[in-house]
């Protein structure tokens, strides 16, 4: 029995490692993210989706498929808007409960940096779509930051 236990233990750990391996789960799409009941999780998943979509945009442009790149950029913008809507729908005040709002603000700020870097790598005539997405994400980031930093007005 003692000889079998290490083998059995290593087999169980190996199977557990395969099951828990990062990237083992398929990447969610926006429709599955929209169906998330918990609004904070929905916002987080939407921003993770947006972050994960930046590299495929670059690959699409590098492979000469600008239509796919534009489609992915629109999905990034839709994901950020979904996150903003989900956080607003929680009804929580960002200054009083800043955890999810601050996380979203940080993630959108990082996303803006990534998109600006992406814009610089593209041809000049392809930058317009990226810049419009950057502008929208930047506006949402400003709203989040303002909500975190300002006090609620007294009634």
Structural write-up:
With 155 residues, the protein is mostly helical. It has a single domain (30-149), classed as Ferritin, CATH 1.20.1260. The protein is built from seven helices and no strands. Helix 5 (66-89) runs antiparallel to helix 6 and helix 6 runs antiparallel to helix 7. The radius of gyration is 20 Å and the shape is globular. The chain starts with a helix and ends in a 6-residue tail after the last helix.
Instruction: Please tell me the total number of domains.
Output: 1
- Count of runs of 4 or more consecutive helical residues: 7
Strand percentage lies at under 5%
Helix content: over 70%
Instruction: Please state the second-level CATH architecture.
Output: Up-down Bundle
Order of helices and strands: HHHHHHH
Question: Low-confidence stretches at least 5 residues in length (pLDDT < 50)?
Answer: 11-26
Gross morphology: globular
Mean pLDDT: 84
Radius of gyration: 20 Å
CATH topology: Ferritin
User: From the structure provided, what is the oligomeric state, counting identical versus distinct chains?
Assistant: single chain
Describe the SSE topology.
Elements: H1 4-20, H2 30-34, H3 39-52, H4 54-62, H5 66-89, H6 99-121, H7 127-149
Helix pairs in contact: 3-5, 3-6, 4-5, 5-6, 5-7, 6-7
How would you summarize what this structure contains?
This protein has 155 residues and is mainly α.
List keywords for this structure.
155 residues, mainly alpha, Ferritin, 0% strand
């Amino acid at each position: 029995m003692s000889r079998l236990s290490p083998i059995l233990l290593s087999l169980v750990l190996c199977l557990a490692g395969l099951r828990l391996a990062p990237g083992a789960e398929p990447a969610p799409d926006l429709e599955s993210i929209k169906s998330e009941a918990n609004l904070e999780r929905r916002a987080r998943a939407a921003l993770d989706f947006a972050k994960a979509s930046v590299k495929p945009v670059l690959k699409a442009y590098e492979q000469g498929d600008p239509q796919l790149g534009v489609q992915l950029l629109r999905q990034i913008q839709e994901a950020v808007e979904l996150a903003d809507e989900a956080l607003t729908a929680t009804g929580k005040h960002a200054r009083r409960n800043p955890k999810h709002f601050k996380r979203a603000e940080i993630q959108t700020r990082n996303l803006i940096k990534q998109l600006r870097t992406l814009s610089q790598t593209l041809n000049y005539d392809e930058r317009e779509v990226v810049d419009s997405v950057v502008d929208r994400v930047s506006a949402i980031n400003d709203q989040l930051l303002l909500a975190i930093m300002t006090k609620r007005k007294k009634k």
